[in-house]
Amino acid sequence: MTDSLTQITLPNGLKILLKEIHTAPIISSWLWYRVGSRDETPGRTGISHWVEHMQFKGTPQFPANVLDKLISREGGSWNAFTYMDWTAYFETMPADKIDLALRLESDRMTNSQFNADEVASERTVIMAEREGSENEPLFQLGETVQHAAFRVHAYHHEVIGDMADLRTMTRDDLYNHYRGYYVPNNAVMAVAGDFDTQTMMTRIRELFEPIPAGSEPSRLQRPEPTQNGEVRLSVEGPGATTYVQACYRFPAASHPDFFALSVLDSLLAGPSNLNMFSGGISNKTSRLYRALVDKQLAVSAHGGASATIDPFLYSITMTIHPKRKPEEALDALDKEIQRAREEKVSKEEIARAIKQARALFAYGSENISNQAFWLGYAEMFAAYEWFQTYLDKLAKVTVKDVQRVANEYFQNKSRVVGIYAPTNGKA
Amino acid sequence: MDTTKKNSLPGPDDIYREVLPNGITVLTRSNFNSPSVVISGFFNAGALFDSDEKLGLADFVTSALMRGTKKRSFDEIYHALESVGASLGFNTGVHKSGFHGRCLAEDLSLLLSLLSESLTQPAFPKVEIEKLRAQILTGLAIRAQDTGDMASMLFDEILFKDHPYGRPEDGHPETIKKITRDDLVKFQRETYGARGLTIVIVGGVKAEEAVRQVKRALGGWQVKGQKEAGELPSLKLLKKTVSKSHKIAGKSQSDLVIGTNGPKRKDPEFMAALIGNNILGQFGMMGRIGDVVREKSGLAYYSGSSLNAGIGPGSWEVSAGVNPQNVKKATDLIVSELKRFVDDGVTADELADTQANFIGRLPLSLESNGGVANALLNIERYDLGLDYYRRYEGLVREVTRESILSAARKFIDVDRLAIAAAGP
Description:
A: alpha+beta; Cytochrome Bc1 Complex, Chain A, domain 1; 2 domains; six-stranded mixed β-sheet; five-stranded mixed β-sheet; 16 helices; B: alpha+beta; about 45% helix
């Protein structure tokens, strides 16, 4: 996975990663900006995501109704994602058509219009997007739990933002956010696929080098203080199904403990799949499945962490069995956590977690978009080396490491537990 | 570049197809760029066999296949599978049921053994069946709260009234409660068998080795008297527009599905309808429908159209998620776009754009083992020919504005639509 990789930073600060892969006539190009909901304050929540939407609304060179047609006509696939730590735009194209994507991205790094009418119509589109999410009990629960877990840090709100802010943000708010963060020195360009590195580098230089560096974007400095005592909350809503979410404090992805925790995650809840374009595997022999689902306290149990810049959460989500109480499932969860803290795991369990990770990596490598995704994604919270050495680092995890991180990170006093209590049709 | 392009499209020179003596069809394509393998397939045991009273039986059976076999317990099956990072799962459609799995190439024989045991020797352990029943019922309770699922179900009920396509394959709570373990055993014994079973293997394994492994795992499977599904009843077309809504209290958004019948996959109009549909509700930012409902009116986050064509009559539907107050407004906009589509057809530019899109995106859909496996399944299911993806560009280019207009007029009548909404 490490062949033909080239990394360079242009004088304007734009970092470029190129990886030649000649298995199919396809190139995937990704432009990543270091901006997301972590950079948002109350009154401006959801602004990064809204700016991402506005990036599809056109520039003088590529007007809105021309932009999407151009990419589609060439057989391309494109989209964008806004997350807590980053915003990413990608185009995967037939190899001989990639120039269009490169021109488009260099253009919309500086020339997006943010026309007032477009802002107005996108406001209701995004409100509709949020309403769609609000239909989901797990969105309601997850949003409330996350808010309770982060009183100070900007991870406290959902990426889509609060309805109050979606109603009031102005065109100028959005445009200023765009101008402040969409600068080459705050971006990473990652391209993988069927190209010649030298030719690709020359073209990227032509298109992106003339863009001047901007001021270093401002960052909020509001680390979350230590949580002293478990927080419990409940959310009521329609339906007949009870859900429980238990969230523990996890370190940043760049922290050395992240790897031992990944092994523990595999054991507890089945391996988390960090690939963007490739599915995961089932978790029916994980400890939590056996303790919760096999014992008929829940009908499903899943766990997972996100790779983030700042410490975030490890979330365990349980769909409670219709004949059981959420407290019964929580008791069983506590016993499993206690077991992980007190008993050493076996070497075989660690070897199994490593093999699972190796398989997930292999599945992810089939797809050029996914390989290009990793080039930039890893740069957002660490460096590409994080991805290249991931399996080696997992292989070095010891039985002692797993027990130590179980004790350090899985503590009731620093967790948030949320219960979605269905009203069963009662108002 | 040309060599890479040619090699990326499967064709007769790199797809290997063999029918085993017991009737199993195997298709394989090697990809040694990948250290992993995908297996996928289908067999004739879909929900068509289900009675109304026990609707969901076929689906219950596929869900139960891996809950224990005569050789291994539920836990042993998943321990073997998950320990090597592999996956395997079954699903159910109206006509056929299917499976999909993947593993590192070194574990292919394990995956095929598990597939074989699940298909041929499921044990349906009582305890596991009851656990599964609770899970299915919870799934149905969640479905009842999902505005998208409920709008879609209601749409099928209207469009396919008194027809098997109008029923949800996963059944209803009352039908799932009636299904016994004996029903599961009987269903598997009567409908499962090698006849009609197709297995596709794509990835880092040689064709002859893949076939050898399938023979070892399933070559000896013989079932006497394997049942055939009954004939599909004829469809009663709507005589006028039928509009229904389903209330789910406490929701923030309504889902809307509007549409009509569509072609079968093997109908001559299929490709024209597919390209027309792309212009109507997919191209760029969800086509004309997306442009009117989302881009110009800001009414929805998603709004587009889809053409669902299979063995029998399909559906051609437009869907959108909108604020409950905007259901009527969105409906009116969608119906007027359908009318424009049927009255005026598409422009030469729109057709050229979509043709280029279909031809250009083909390599993207075939870059992964899973993408190629889907392509091979399509080839087999609809008799498309091993050279289908090499001929595909020509088939796309044959479509004209006239053939799209003719397909649109054959299937879409704005005075005979099914309109379904679910929301607060």
